[in-house]
Amino acid sequence: MIYLISDTHFNQKRIIDYENRPFNSVEEMNKQLINNWNNTVSKEDTIYHLGDFASGNKSEVKNIFDQLNGYKVLIKGNHDRCNSNIWWHDIGFEDVIDGGIILDSFYLLTHEPMYMNINMTPYVNIHGHIHSNKMEGNQYFNVSVEHHNYTPVAFDRIKAMYKSDE
């Protein structure tokens, strides 16, 4: 199975207030995000993290990373870009991508939403970055944790929503 998630912001206290997340502390948020991730994603699954994974030094971030199931791919977000791709590989990500990738020839995975001419693009843009906000148009799917009960989203679920449009 393939899963997608964005904007976990592990270890970041300000995100709780900024996005009005329902947690009393960073420890509570981290624990819930880890539990939700591992109750959804198996060790054999692939998960694309669409950016803004975690804050902290290498050992703090690696401690979070090591608790998470799955073959993990990072599409770097604006908060991840302060560290090099090598740094993120050292954390344990199998692949680290600057920019975006196309999955299944139809789904453009990015951190920031790509502002596309919806009448001309052949893609659905799966993204994060805008947290609880939504993009206009049916060619966008926001996997920021605030939209999905702080839980990864199955790629099959997203594909089923667009199947009739392919």
Verbal overview:
- The chain is an alpha/beta fold.
- About 25% of the residues lie in helices and about 20% in strands.
- It has helices at about 15-20, 25-40, 60-65, 85-90, 155-160; strands at about 1-5, 45-50, 70-75, 95, 100-105, 105-110, 125, 140, 155.
- Strand 3, helix 4 (about 85-90) and strand 4 (about 95) form a beta-alpha-beta unit.
- The longest helix is centred in the first third of the chain and has 15 residues, at about 25-40.
- It is globular and about 40 Å long.
- The model has no long low-confidence stretch (mean pLDDT about 95).
Keywords:
four-stranded mixed beta sheet; 166 residues; alpha/beta; 26% helix; 5 helices; single chain; globular; five-stranded mixed beta sheet
Report the mean per-residue pLDDT as an integer.
Answer: 93
Strand content: 15-25%
Order of helices and strands: EHHEHEHEEEEEEH
Task: Sketch the major β-sheet.
Answer: 5 strands, mixed
By DSSP (H or I, 4+ residues per run), the number of helices equals: 5
Helical residue percent? Answer: 25-40%
Query: What is the global morphology?
Result: globular
In total, how many beta strands? 9
Q: Give the N-to-C terminal Cα separation.
A: 20 Å
Low-confidence stretches: none
How are the strands of the largest sheet arranged?
A: 4-3-2-1-9
Rg measurement, Å: 15 Å
**Category from helices, strands and their pairing:** alpha/beta
